[in-house]
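Q: I'm building a small set of examples for a reading group on sequence design. Run inverse folding on the following structure and report the sequence directly after it, with nothing in between.
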């Protein structure tokens, strides 16, 4: 056990007891064939195996309505509980822990530090007969063991059989990390990875860069580096597994390390893509993180043909930012009159007439494309991000009190997911996020847990810290407004790592690949050129089994002014998704998104 092998003096005592006692018993028995074989190899004795199996019990099979996770048993070291707590950041479910032990208080503190009190519930010790009634109510049981010694490697916990008898599937795996070279050298039969500056035995070797061992943030001079024409970061000077530090490279991009640098910003005070290492190496349109991981997996598979990696299906998430819900309707009298005067002053008589007809309800508001969107996406669930801020130069939605606007949000919510689009003003007044979030929650009568920043305003780490404080746990801001591609080098969601605090968080970031305004307003592309770029992004996301996330606005689907004909770009995108049979992530992964967030 870890409690023994990590205490050298205690370990020596027990080893002496074992060497003295085990050969002495003529009728010795043990609980597993693996231990019996180990005794025979060490002491040339034959031990009988008597399984430590609990009596068969009659469990009442309960109907399972929620996908809750169960851990029952000792809350001690080497049960993988520390890793399990951190892993729960990745899982939209609730973990119940029944039991007690010497690690209980540490696990309790770890849960609090990771802000997981709502996702991991410590239930303590209960009577066996009570536990029997509870076990069958869970979707899956956890049975983790760290391979820190033969006792763990050959263990067969009672909960293994309890889960089986209760008809509950269980997840279990043996694993180990170590800094003990002697111990590492002894595990020759297993896949071993050396992450160090020097290789000291035959194993998969990744020469480590200093990045993951540092606590401070400093600007790193990244030279143009390639291996077999493949762009990489932190190339190794000496020969190792794949020629570069894949762990440091992935961390550098996903942590957005370069966005912590003190560099010039654009007119909206945003990080400029031209400063990014991916732009400088012309790889923004490629999910290089996935490329690197594929290289690493192929190398590992060559070292051990039994290794298998889980395959994922590509998926998509349709997302819409509702910055300006209506061009003319549902506005205050002051805004309506101001609009008329402005158009007359500029001699915009055609626009004046259009506004007049719209206000008088003789003509449909050109930005009211919600029926078109819903009929076009058909049964495809989407996310709509609503701006709940007060009117300003950058925030132009109707008042959150406007009845028709509220009805529209509620109508959309019936078939889709609703998220917050924090107003431009939130960037200078962080307290506004809580206010705007509360407004939207009051409209849909559900807690808001997802967001995307208006104008994609993003400053590391302040923006995300503010979202976390307001209990937002999924954000869709990662992407650029003036170019397309993969800002963090990935087409898959990942957790925000706060470099200033040197800590991982529970906030999951969903990177979008393309915004329609980038193609039309910024790059001035033709409709056919836009279709081609979107197709290419879909294909490369599909290749790496990622999530294709486009960003659209209701106003750009108006078919008005310079957006005339752009609805065909939108429809062509949907056709490609259907033709390639790409699945809707919201319907396969987020079937019950609101209750899973509670």
């Amino acid at each position: 056990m870890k409690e023994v092998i990590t205490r050298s003096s205690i370990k020596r005592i027990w080893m002496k007891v074992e060497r003295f006692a085990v050969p002495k018993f003529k009728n010795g028995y043990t609980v597993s064939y693996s231990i019996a074989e180990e005794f025979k190899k060490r002491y040339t004795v034959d031990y009988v195996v008597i399984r430590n199996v609990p009596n068969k019990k009659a469990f009442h099979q309960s109907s399972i309505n929620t996908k809750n996770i169960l851990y029952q048993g000792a809350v001690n070291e080497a049960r993988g509980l520390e890793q399990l707590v951190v892993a729960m950041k990745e899982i939209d479910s609730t973990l119940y822990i029944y039991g007690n032990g010497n690690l209980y208080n540490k696990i309790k503190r770890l849960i609090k530090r990771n802000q997981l009190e709502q996702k991991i519930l410590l239930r303590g010790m209960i009577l066996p007969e009570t536990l029997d009634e509870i076990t069958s109510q869970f979707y899956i049981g956890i049975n983790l063991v760290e391979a820190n010694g033969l006792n763990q490697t050959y263990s067969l916990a009672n909960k293994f059989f309890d889960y089986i008898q209760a008809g509950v599937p269980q997840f279990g795996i043996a694993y180990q990390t170590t800094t003990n070279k002697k111990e590492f050298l002894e595990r020759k039969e297993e896949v071993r990875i050396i992450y160090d500056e020097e290789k000291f035995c035959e194993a998969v070797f990744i020469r480590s860069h200093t990045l993951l061992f540092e606590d401070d943030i400093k600007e790193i001079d990244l030279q143009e580096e390639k291996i077999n024409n493949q762009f990489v970061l932190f190339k190794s000077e000496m020969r190792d597994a794949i020629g570069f530090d894949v762990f440091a490279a992935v961390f550098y991009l996903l942590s957005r390390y370069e966005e912590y640098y003190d560099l010039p910003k654009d007119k909206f005070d945003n990080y400029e893509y031209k400063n990014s290492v991916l732009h400088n190496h012309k790889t923004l349109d490629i999910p290089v993180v996935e490329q690197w991981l594929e290289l690493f997996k192929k190398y590992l598979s060559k070292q051990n043909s039994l290794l298998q990696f889980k395959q994922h299906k590509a998926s998509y998430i349709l997302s819409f930012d509702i910055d300006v819900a209506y061009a003319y309707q549902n506005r205050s009298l002051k805004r309506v009159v101001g609009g008329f005067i402005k158009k007359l002053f500029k001699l915009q008589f055609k626009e004046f007439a259009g506004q007049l007809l719209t206000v008088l309800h003789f003509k449909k508001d050109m930005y009211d494309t919600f029926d078109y969107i819903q009929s076009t996406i058909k049964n495809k669930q989407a996310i709509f991000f609503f701006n709940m801020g007060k009117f300003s130069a950058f925030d132009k939605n109707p008042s959150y009190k406007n009845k028709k606007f509220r009805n529209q949000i509620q109508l959309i919510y019936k078939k889709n997911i609703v998220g917050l689009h924090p107003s431009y003003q939130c960037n200078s007044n962080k307290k506004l996020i809580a206010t705007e979030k509360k407004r939207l929650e009051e409209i849909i009568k559900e807690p808001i847990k997802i967001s995307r920043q208006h104008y994609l305003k993003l400053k590391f780490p302040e923006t995300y810290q503010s979202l976390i404080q307001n209990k937002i746990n999924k954000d869709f801001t990662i992407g650029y407004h003036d170019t397309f591609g993969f800002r963090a080098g990935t087409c898959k969601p990942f957790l925000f790592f706060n470099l200033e605090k040197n800590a991982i968080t529970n906030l999951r970031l969903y990177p979008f690949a393309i915004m329609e305004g980038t193609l039309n307003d910024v790059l001035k592309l033709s409709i056919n050129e836009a279709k081609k770029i979107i197709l290419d992004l879909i294909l490369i996301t599909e290749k790496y089994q990622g999530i294709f996330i486009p960003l659209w606005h209701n106003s750009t689907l108006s078919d008005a002014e310079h957006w005339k004909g752009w609805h065909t770009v939108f429809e062509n995108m949907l056709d490609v998704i259907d033709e390639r049979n790409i699945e809707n992530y919201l319907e396969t992964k987020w079937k019950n998104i609101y209750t899973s967030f509670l």
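The radius of gyration is 29 Å.
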